[in-house]
Task: inverse folding
């Protein structure tokens, strides 16, 4: 047993746990202060219900099955929309990053479309699809498309040309060059795109659900507003926050798994 | 000062290199791959970039297994010459041929390798996988791992096989790049200032490593460098390039392994430097 062993062992066990707790201190403190402020009457419950009331409302909705159903509907819409928009964006990013012809053909058009705020299309989308599922999927896919397209394109364009030359010298075929040099080189940038896209995904979905839907979290919040159920409204907002955090954490885990070679991911 | 400068192309001097060849063959008896170097003939080679004529007619013969250093001021065309030899750029006029016979011998892409000033390692591949890249079309073969490990051992980095390149020092990265260049047992190895970015001590140990692997494997080595002392320490022959032409062809006859800083090498270095500097004064 060397000294180094005895020092590094407890540290390697302790660090992740403390790290995991630290990030929750501020959210928990906010909830605690909020609870105290509500109970003492400093904040009227008509403006903001106490956290305990929100939890209670959540419990009731959970028992009725309404909460799970609405979360599931929203989650499903978000994932399908993300998959559709993300894969189309990824495909265009690849095509335009690898082929000059494809870039000349489509990039200008895509840049023009990009400058239209996709939420401005909501009236048009409702006219096209009604308040059908496809309306929400279309909007989410459109919103997710651009960050993934732009970052995939950027990632591929900025792969070190010296590495590409090296790959060619060592006789890599186009397929190998893509698999071993270009794609791994573009991956960090693609992940930036994914994380941007996840943010846009929730934003788009919530807006779409509050305006035109008959189920989902946004719809639940709007219904609660109709009946002045402020605790359910606050509950929905908190669930958005949690889901957003969950999506971000998932992409971080994926990032850490695939980018373990990157110096930025080695020290943690 | 006595100089050893000669402007002819001496082929007889290189008989000494032949001494290595039988020895090398004994070492690799189990390997059918021929490890001897390829001779190289360049005739009337020209290359321009736009209006700028970088190479203005290079004629050069390099016998098999010779270690040639190319020196010159920056922008003289030495790196361009190397890139043409390695097949990285297109030739405007003239020819480069490997092998003695006129008809092109069956030369595999794996026979000619380049090492650059930057290591150019894939950051997302571990050290061993980076060396395997050098196998070219043999990457998928069953003994790929074993061959890559052997090359890593040759450059003294066998214990780093599972590391990411980002944790290696500059000299270690360059050794991995050397292992990657060596793993396919090339017959011509072109170095484009491979040690330019290293500190003085690392550079000296890398020079020794280069000399050792060259003597072990007997490939034809072409080293582009701006460091004249490095050129005389390593090469059998130093070419000085000025304004796109070979201005001097200097034979270095010092015995190997060479004593760094010996009077003989220092004298040679001085005379080559004075040539480079006098060219500077003229312009």
Result:
């Amino acid at each position: 047993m060397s000294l180094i062993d005895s020092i590094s062992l407890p540290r390697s066990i302790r660090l992740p746990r403390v790290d995991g707790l630290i990030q929750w201190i501020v959210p928990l403190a906010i909830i605690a202060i909020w609870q105290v402020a509500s109970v003492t009457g400093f904040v009227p419950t008509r403006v903001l219900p106490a956290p305990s009331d929100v939890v209670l409302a959540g419990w009731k909705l959970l028992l009725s099955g309404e909460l799970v159903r609405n979360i599931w509907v929203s989650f499903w819409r978000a994932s399908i929309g993300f998959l559709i928009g993300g894969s189309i964006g990824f495909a265009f990013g690849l095509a335009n990053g690898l082929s000059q012809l494809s870039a000349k053909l489509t990039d200008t058009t895509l840049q023009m479309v990009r400058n239209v705020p996709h939420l401005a299309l909501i009236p048009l989308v409702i006219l096209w699809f009604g308040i059908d599922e496809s309306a929400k999927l279309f909007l989410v896919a459109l919103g997710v498309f651009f960050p993934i397209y732009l970052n995939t394109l950027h990632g591929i364009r900025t792969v070190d040309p010296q590495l590409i030359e090296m790959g060619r010298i060592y006789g890599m075929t186009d397929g190998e060059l893509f698999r071993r040099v270009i794609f791994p080189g573009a991956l960090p940038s693609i992940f930036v795109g994914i994380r941007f896209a996840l943010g846009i995904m929730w934003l788009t979905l919530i807006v779409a659900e509050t305006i035109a839907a008959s189920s989902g979290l946004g719809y639940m919040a709007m219904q609660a507003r109709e009946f002045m159920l402020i605790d359910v409204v606050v509950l929905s907002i908190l669930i958005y926050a949690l889901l957003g955090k969950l999506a971000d954490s998932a992409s971080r885990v994926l990032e850490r798994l695939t980018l373990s070679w990157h110096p930025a991911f080695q020290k943690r | 000062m006595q100089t050893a400068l000669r402007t002819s192309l001496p082929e007889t001097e290189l008989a000494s290199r032949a001494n290595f060849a039988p020895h090398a063959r004994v070492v690799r008896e189990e390997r059918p791959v021929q490890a001897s170097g390829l001779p190289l003939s360049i005739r009337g080679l020209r290359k321009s970039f736009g209006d700028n004529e970088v190479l203005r007619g290079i004629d050069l013969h390099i016998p098999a297994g010779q270690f040639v250093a190319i020196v010159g001021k920056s922008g003289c065309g030495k790196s361009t010459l190397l890139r043409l030899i390695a097949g990285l750029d297109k030739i405007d006029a003239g020819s480069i041929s490997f092998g003695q016979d006129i008809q092109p011998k069956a030369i595999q892409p794996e026979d000619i390798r380049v090492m650059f000033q930057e290591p150019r390692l894939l950051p997302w591949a571990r050290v061993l996988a980076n060396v395997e890249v050098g196998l070219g079309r043999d990457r998928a073969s069953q003994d790929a791992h074993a061959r890559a490990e052997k090359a890593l051992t040759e450059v003294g980095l066998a214990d780093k096989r599972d590391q990411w390149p980002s944790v290696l020092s500059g000299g270690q990265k360059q050794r991995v790049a050397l292992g990657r260049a060596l793993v396919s047992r090339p017959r011509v190895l072109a170095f484009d200032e491979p040690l330019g970015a290293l500190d003085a001590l690392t550079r000296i140990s890398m020079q020794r490593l280069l000399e050792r692997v060259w003597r072990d494997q007997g490939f034809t080595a072409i080293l582009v460098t701006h460091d004249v002392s490095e050129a005389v320490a390593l090469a059998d022959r130093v070419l000085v390039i000025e304004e796109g032409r070979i201005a001097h062809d200097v034979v270095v006859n010092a015995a190997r392994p060479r004593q760094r800083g010996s009077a003989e090498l220092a004298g040679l270095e001085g005379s080559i430097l004075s040539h480079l500097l006098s060219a500077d004064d003229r312009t």
Remarks:
- Residues 174-211 of chain A form the longest helix (38 residues).
- The interface with chain B takes residues 162-163, 165-167, 169-172, 180-181, 184-185, 187, 259-263, 266 of chain A (CB under 8 Å).
- Residues 150 and 178 of chain A are 18 Å apart (CA to CA).
- Chain A has a mean pLDDT of 87.
